[in-house]
Structure formats: C-alpha cells, structure tokens
Design goal:
Elements: E1 5-8, E2 13-16, E3 18-21, H1 28-31, H2 34-47, E4 51-53, H3 62-73, E5 80-85, H4 95-110, E6 115-120, E7 124-125, E8 133-134, H5 135-151, E9 155-161, H6 166-174, E10 180-184, H7 208-214, E11 218-222, H8 253-262, H9 265-268, H10 275-284, E12 291-295, H11 299-311, H12 316-327
Parallel strand pairs: 3-4, 3-12, 4-5, 5-6, 6-9, 7-8, 9-10, 10-11, 11-12
Antiparallel strand pairs: 1-2
Helix pairs in contact: 2-3, 3-4, 4-5, 10-11
C-alpha cells in the first residue's frame, strides 16, 4: 500500500502524510552506513513518500550531502525537499547575505537548484537576544531575504520552525508571509491543536494550528515521538543521538519518559500495538497537520512509522483516553 498526500501551503505541494526525517536525533542520514541510507530512501520512494526534510545543522551538512547523493543515484528529481537556515548571532548584522549563503550551500550539497520548502530555524522571541531572533528581525530582515530568494526561484515555499515564545510565533504567523511551519505536536504536548488544562507541564502554543490554517499555511508535525521519549524505552539505537533536550514538553528527557510510561494503557487496552505506533497515529489524527516527521535510525524504524501511518488515526476512544491520562500530568510533580 502506498501512502497518500495532502496539499501543503499556498502552492499546494503534494506532501506525503509521512515525511522522511533526515535529522540528527534518529541519525540514519547523518551517521548511518551509505547502503542503509540509500536502501531506506529507495523504500520511502517506493512507499509513496514525497517529502524529505533535512538541514545544514544535521551533521554539519552531512545529512544534506547524503540525502542529495541518494536522491541523485535513485533519479528522484521530483522528490520534495525541505531544508533550513539557522542564523548565528554573529550574522545578525548581515542577515540577508547570511540567509542567501546558507541556502546556496544547502542547494550545492543537495544537488538541486531550489528548495521546495525553506525554513527559518532560529527560535523567535519578542525581543530576541543571544541566538534568538526578535519578531522585528524576522519581519524586517529575514522576510525580505526569503522573499528575494523566492522571487529568484530558489525557494518555492518560505517557512519557519515554530519554536520560541508563543506570543512571538503568533505575531510572525499573523504577519502572513510564511507559507508553512514545523510545529511541535505530540501526546505530551498537543497545545498547538488543543487547549491545555491549567498547570500543564509544557509550553502552551495556544492552538497555533488554527492561526496557521486561517492563513493557508502548511503544517509539518515535528517531535511526534518527543525526541524518542514516546518510544516507551530509554534505550537509544547506536546510530541515534544521545537523548535530546525536550522541546516544548517537560523540564527534562527523564520527565518526558516518565509521562510517556503513563500512556502505556493505550497499548495494554488494545488501542495500538506499541507506544510509538500510538504516538504516530495520535499525530495523524490531527487534521491541521499536512505531514509528520519521525526521526529514524534504521530502515526497520521507517517501516514501523510507515505501518503506523497506514493504519490511520487513533480512534476517538483512544484520543479520549490520551486526554484523560494527560490531564493528570497537570497535577503530577515535575
């Protein structure tokens, strides 16, 4: 069975319901063997995967290089590829040229003449500071740089990674330039799509997906497995990164693991065969997400994610069970 697609953003790019994540957390496209990488990409294409997501930050360009080589060898020129720019504070004085230089380097490694989706990957806050960009910097400096690259045909959809302060993210979305965003959404923090109870131990993204939908922005669900915490195990694959810091969820990876364990009734009560399957199907059940990314360390992990997506969204009873269990997180310490 081949996976279906959904239209993404103002250009209605046909992104597959499951994207192929090439990040450093799963690690396959950064640290995996060349034969394993190409086998996984070939299998993804065979299964109907149209969207491949990478960034220069993943392995200091290794992910882009490896993805570009695999797609080239497999003659997959029609595949949709998204990559990213993360500006360093030392570049804040020349944002336009830094954005252009980053994209050109990415395209060279990817062996492509344009990026289908190009994301600003810095955290965005109201006032900026450190490595964070302020709303003003994004709207007055990043947006013109992205617009120029789009007009030159080097970008199809300008996009952002929705990390930083919630109020700042809302302001940038409502400005109406970006055509897509990566959004943190998982069973430990569904606040981009649902209201959270008071005292919930996670960042409240304030139903950010509703704001995006009103502006025809495409949405990519990220951290679907909370960096691996929703695998249900503390063990890490040899190719994977060490446990990453949480994004938008608990104060520590260990806290996320503990809360993930409380969601095991989804498995014991027969809603899903495993906790990762439940987590993936939970994300698929969110209509505001056009595609989701699952980091992978091996072809077997890709097959597991694909099988979960093909099973379809969790049923309503399972979604209610998630809500019931997670409501208790607001009362739990840590």
């Amino acid at each position: 069975m081949r996976i279906g697609t959904r239209p993404f953003g103002p250009e209605s790019l046909p992104v597959s319901r499951l994207g192929f994540g090439c990040g450093g957390v799963g690690g396959l496209m950064v640290r995996g063997a060349a034969a394993d990488r190409e086998r996984a990409v070939a299998r993804a294409l065979e299964a109907g995967i149209t969207y491949f997501d990478t960034a220069v930050q993943y392995g200091d360009g290794a992910s882009e290089e490896n993805l570009g080589a695999a797609l080239h060898r497999l003659k997959a020129g029609s595949a949709l590829v998204g990559t990213k720019v993360r500006l360093r504070s030392a570049e804040f004085g020349a944002i336009g040229s830094a954005v252009a230089a980053s994209l050109e380097g990415s395209l060279r490694r990817l062996r492509r003449d344009h990026a289908d989706i190009f994301y600003l990957h810095n955290e965005i806050t109201l006032e900026g500071g450190g490595e964070n960009l302020s709303v003003r910097q994004v709207l007055e400096e990043v947006v013109p740089a992205f617009r120029a690259l789009q007009e030159a045909g080097r970008i199809r959809v300008p996009a952002m990674t929705a990390v930083g302060e919630t109020a700042a993210l809302h302001q940038v979305i409502e400005a109406g330039f970006f055509g897509g965003a990566q959004v943190i959404y998982n069973m430990l923090n569904p606040s981009a799509g649902h209201a959270l109870p008071a005292g919930y131990p996670a960042q409240d993204y304030g139903r950010l997906l509703d704001r995006m939908r009103a502006r025809r922005m495409g949405a990519v669900g990220i951290r679907v497995l909370a960096g691996g915490a929703l695998s249900g195990s503390a063990a890490r694959h040899p190719v994977a990164s060490p446990a990453p810091a949480p994004m938008g969820s608990g104060e520590s990876y260990e806290a996320d693991l503990a809360r993930a364990a409380e969601l095991m009734p989804l498995v014991t009560e027969g809603f899903a065969a495993s906790l990762p399957e439940a987590a993936i199907r939970f994300a698929v059940a969110q209509p505001g997400l056009e595609t989701i990314l699952v980091g992978m360390a091996s072809l077997e992990e890709f097959e597991g994610a694909l099988a979960a997506v093909l099973k379809g969204p969790l049923p309503e009873g399972a979604l209610r069970r998630v809500a019931d269990i997670s409501a208790g997180f607001a009362r739990a310490p840590g």
